[in-house]
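Re: your question from the hallway

Yes, I did run it. Sequences:
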Amino acid sequence: MATLTVPASVPSPAEDSEQLRKAFEGWGTNEALIISILAHRNAAQRTSIRKTYEQTYGEDLLKSLDKELSNDFERAVLLWTMDPAERDAFLANEATKRLTSSNWVVIEIACTRSSYDLFLVKQAYHARFKKSPEEDVAYHTSGDIRKLLVPLVSSFRYEGTEVNMMLAKSEAKILHEKVSEKAYTDDDLIRILTTRSKAQLNATLNHYNNEFGNAINKDLKTDPKDEYLSLLRATIKCLTCPEKYFEKVLRLAINKQGTDEGALTRVVTTRAEIDMQRIKEEYYRRNSVPLDHAIAGDTSGDYEKMLLALVGHGNA
Amino acid sequence: MATLTVPASVPSPAEDSEQLRKAFEGWGTNEALIISILAHRNAAQRTSIRKTYEQTYGEDLLKSLDKELSNDFERAVLLWTMDPAERDAFLANEATKRLTSSNWVVIEIACTRSSYDLFLVKQAYHARFKKSPEEDVAYHTSGDIRKLLVPLVSSFRYEGTEVNMMLAKSEAKILHEKVSEKAYTDDDLIRILTTRSKAQLNATLNHYNNEFGNAINKDLKTDPKDEYLSLLRATIKCLTCPEKYFEKVLRLAINKQGTDEGALTRVVTTRAEIDMQRIKEEYYRRNSVPLDHAIAGDTSGDYEKMLLALVGHGNA
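Structure:
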């Protein structure tokens, strides 16, 4: 469930564009006005506004925002305003660049989006960067991490709910064997995690838990400092319980000395329209503090206001 | 260029459906009538006929054809009548089954179709088989062959024509190093072949040829009996000069003691609407016999008539 709130009666894209243009004009920028419009429009509405704005003022809205805003607030508004597939393509590309590389972000995008949404990300990536995300991920990684990440990004998983219980049992056994042998980069282990549908994988991992006494992620915690192992755990978490994965990203971002604004902005802007309500519930359950209070305590100014608007602060 | 010929004035889908129904009725089946209709309609027209036929007679046209026809002729008509994405999904699935498995067919579909067409194949595969092709390919292969095939099937390659010449040079060098070391299953070699756009790969392989004196496929012919190596050569051929690849498949199918009807039917039905004209040119250049003569010499009856109609026998 989303936390985005859209007013019952939404102004036309032309009216919204005009108001945004007004917010940019004159001496100061009217940040409150920008938030009051953009943070309360869904993806389709934002796309219409961007189209109308460009037709009316001859400039991409993103460019105008880029000129007027700065720092964390700017990044939050820009990411939020982008079309979701374009935004993911942008984040994935950033995650494969040398200075901003992040295997976490790659896994997050590859494993928490639906197959079709991931396909749209690939199309957006082609259009914007003139190459494919699998190409960049493969080029910027190596060894075991490449072996895991490239198929995760490439797969177009089946999305149906059908489950083959025989297969779940036999593959749970394979996974348990490989994990017991510490063969964490085994071909079959990677094949199962990177190609099976989420429903099938869930059945397999439930069977693993029932049959062998531990959740697989517990068995994969033999060396907490091993990057490959933590990426493997993140993969499984993203595929089977994304809200718990995102709760943890938010928790670490907020609890960190100095706040990790990059992660905070990414999770809020990419999930506000999808499952932020579930993530908030998980956050409260795990931290005994409501997410909006935690965000308010750790951020300030327009950036804080933007994030709070997106996570539905003040809603019933 | 296609070899399919469609009459200047095409009957309506209702008229075609009625004629087909007539061809099925009575004592014998009117094969000539079936060929005269289906072998001269393009994919969109065949889809319309199938839709209208089902609405009118309450049965999938494929099912009626299956009841009326038999053997090689049946397979040719059924494959041809299918929607191209559905047909490729069917062929790919067959190619991952134990008794009919064929790594060649997997490579052919993965490497000669456009990225978007391959995506449509994946969607058709999900719809029909309730799983993904990458899942089945990964499950039914192992070792080096899996390492090559799974990313080939999974990749959604960039399709633009932009070429990065610096990258082409550096990657040609990597390929040459790995091939010289006989490191044919090297991660980087596979990464380059499975993720780069066809345009980029072409530039890389041209540079390889210019700089190191041989086409890469010549350097990969160290052991003609090694299956992995021949799949690697097929991959490169499918990606860079599909018409030569298909010419060879046809040549081997026709020259074989007893004719390989499976391969012949597959190539004719999948390419008639795409590039069969180019394949015919290649065939004549390489064999000094026109393809339609060779097909006529090796096949007979309605099967022969169907194939000849699809390869444009008797056209100017």
